[in-house]
Amino acid sequence: MKCVTHTLTLMLVLVLGFLVGARYQRVLDNVEALQSLTAVQKNRISELSTANSHLASVVRLRELLAENRIYLSRSNVEAMASRVEQVSLKYGIGSEMIYAVIRTESSFDPMALSNKGAMGLMQLLPSTAREVASQLNIRWTDERMLWDPLTNLEMGTFYLSTLLTRFDNMEVALAAYNQGPNRIAALQATQAELPMEYPDRVLSILSRQN
């Protein structure tokens, strides 16, 4: 009798153990499923956020181009907006600031040429661009590279970021972008008044964009 009772007790313990284990496994499965679903939802939200951000950039660029009566193909607009997003994050210069500089420099004309020989969207001199290309490990062929809007954007934004690092002030960096860093440094050394017309124009455009 004791043997039967012991056997039944053992069977009951095993059954209970199985039920508890099965329930615990279901809980684990549910937790893993929930974690997996949460990860998928987070990825989807991130993808939607990125897509919305890009769409907003494209729309913003189209507005700016329309204001300046510059008409580019859809693919070129999307490529330009994407590059601005990329270099903005890469070099720490806000996209609206980049657009403000472009608007001031070239009015979004990728083929703009100044009387001093500055070229393209961000109006880089070939001599400056050659130095920038070396710093960026971009193979410099000739000045015609500056007619490519994406290359011009990369070089121009990087150059502005180096000036911001050097002078630690956006207004002064903008003055150096326009006047040349050596001239601005020389004026600072003598505590002379800096030419701020260009920075004022860029920042005025920036405030209107915002």
Short key terms for the protein model shown above:
mainly alpha
Describe the structure.
With 210 residues, the chain is mostly helical. Helix content is 75%, strand content 0%. The protein is built from eight helices and no strands. It has helices at residues 2-67, 74-91, 95-106, 126-135, 149-167, 170-179, 181-189, 197-209. Helix 1 crosses helix 2 (74-91), helix 3 crosses helix 8 (197-209) and helix 6 crosses helix 7 (181-189).
Report the average pLDDT across residues.
84
Rounded to the nearest angstrom, the radius of gyration is 30 Å
User: Number of helical segments?
Assistant: 8
Distance between the termini: 89 Å
Q: Quickly give the structural class.
A: mainly alpha
Proportion of strand residues = under 5%
**What general form does the structure show?**
elongated
Give helix and strand order, one letter per element, not per position: HHHHHHHH
The largest sheet is: none
Which residues form runs of ≥5 with pLDDT under 50?
none
Helix content: over 70%
* Secondary structure tally: strands: 0
Question: Could you outline the blueprint of secondary structure elements for this entry?
Answer:
Layout: H1 2-67, H2 74-91, H3 95-106, H4 126-135, H5 149-167, H6 170-179, H7 181-189, H8 197-209
Helix pairs in contact: 1-2, 2-5, 3-8, 5-6, 6-7, 6-8
In short:
The longest helix has 66 residues, at 2-67.
